[in-house]
Each structure stands twice: as C-alpha cells, then as structure tokens.
C-alpha cells in the first residue's frame, strides 16, 4: 500500500486551488467572467489604441527622461507610448468596473445570487487548477530532481491535464494574436 500523506508542496497546491475557489464563491460567476473579459479587453484595447492615445501627451521628441544602466537612453516617444498604453488600460478597467457594478446589482435584484455564487465556485476551482498546472509546468525543469517534487502526491495527477491546459493556452494566444493584427 502506498503512502497517501500530503506533502507541504501538495498542501500549497491545494491552498492555491482553495483560495481561487473561495474567491469565485464570494464574487460569483458573472463577476469572475466579467473580470476576466475586462482584463483581456483592457490589454487588447491598450495595444490597439495606446499608440493613438499617446499623442495626447506633449513630450518633446527625443527628450531624455531617464538614464538606462545599460548606457542607452529612454526617449520621450517611448515614454509617450508607454503612458498611452497605461492610460487606455486603466480607463478600460475603470469603465469595466462600472459595468461589473451594474451587472452585480442586476443579479442581486433577480434573486440569482446563490446560483451565481455556486457557479462562481466551480469557475474559481477550475481557474485554480489551471493556475496550479501552469505553475507545475513552469517549475518542472528546475524541480524535477528535488525531493519535494518527487514525493508530491498531487503533482502527477494534476499534470495529467497538462496537454489540455497547453492547448487552452495556445488557443488563447492565437485568438489574442488575431485581435492584435
């Protein structure tokens, strides 16, 4: 019979999944999904409209803003683009939070709060599992010979879903790349 005791690493993995699940439970599915959509939209809108928005910031072309330890200098046009990106990103998040507030009020008024929260719990659990699998994939090259990695009870079970998560990430990257073009 094999030892089924959880290691501290396994407990850390379960804590990440559990915290994500609790966050989903307290926030509800609509709020969780809207939050994800708003963050993705903020990124895509900032990529698309950040350069145009950067023209609103009157930096002198070629002015030096700060030194670079590598010896190069950051030019104002670069700073202007960065500020434009950040401005569009933040404005989108602010507008998105207003939409989230309105949707939350709508859900509360319809009496679907319990259903929304249970579905949020499922969403949060799934998100937590995906986060843990991505972390496992990322640290595997560095940890594959360590005792805590080899003795983990959950690692091999979670990595059974590795192909599915990598497919999901690849498809997401493809969709984002299409939106950027």
Overall structural domain count: 1
Termini separation comes to 56 Å
**Beta-strand residue fraction:** under 5%
Structural class from helices and strands?
A: mainly alpha
Strand order of the largest sheet: 1-2
Question: Total number of β-strand segments?
Answer: 2
Low-confidence stretches: 60-75
Radius of gyration over all CA atoms, rounded: 22 Å
SS element count, helices: 7
What is the string of helix and strand elements? HHEEHHHHH
* Oligomer description: single chain
Mean pLDDT: 83
Globally, the shape reads flat
Largest sheet: 2 strands, antiparallel
State the helical fraction: over 70%
Structure description:
This protein is mainly alpha-helical and 181 residues long. The protein has one domain (8-180). Helix content is 76%, strand content 4%. It has seven helices and two strands, in the order ααββααααα. It has helices at residues 8-27, 29-53, 76-110, 113-143, 147-150, 155-158, 162-180; strands at 64-67, 73-75. The chain is flat. The model is unreliable at 60-75 (pLDDT under 50).
Secondary structure elements and their pairing?
Blueprint: H1 8-27, H2 29-53, E1 64-67, E2 73-75, H3 76-110, H4 113-143, H5 147-150, H6 155-158, H7 162-180
Antiparallel strand pairs: 1-2
Helix pairs in contact: 1-4, 2-3, 2-4
Annotation keywords:
181 residues; mainly alpha; two-stranded antiparallel sheet; 7 helices; 4% strand
Task: Write a brief structural summary.
The protein is mostly helical. It is 76% helix and 4% strand.
């Amino acid at each position: 019979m094999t030892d089924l005791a959880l290691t501290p690493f396994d407990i850390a993995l379960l804590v990440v999944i559990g915290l994500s699940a609790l966050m989903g439970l307290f926030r509800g599915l609509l709020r969780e999904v809207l939050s994800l959509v708003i963050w993705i939209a903020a990124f895509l809108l900032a990529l698309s409209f950040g350069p145009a928005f950067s023209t609103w910031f009157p930096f002198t072309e070629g002015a030096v803003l700060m030194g670079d330890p590598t010896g190069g200098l950051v030019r104002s046009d670069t700073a202007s683009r960065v500020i434009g990106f950040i401005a569009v990103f933040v404005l989108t998040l602010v507008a998105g939070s207003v939409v989230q507030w309105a949707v939350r009020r709508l859900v509360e008024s319809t009496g679907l709060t319990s259903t929304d929260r249970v579905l949020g719990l499922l969403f949060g659990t799934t998100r937590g599992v995906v986060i843990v699998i991505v972390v496992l994939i990322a640290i595997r090259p560095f940890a594959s010979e360590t005792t805590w990695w080899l003795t983990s009870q959950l690692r091999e079970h979670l990595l059974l879903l590795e192909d599915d998560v990598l497919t999901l990430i690849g498809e997401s990257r493809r969709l984002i790349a299409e939106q950027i073009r």
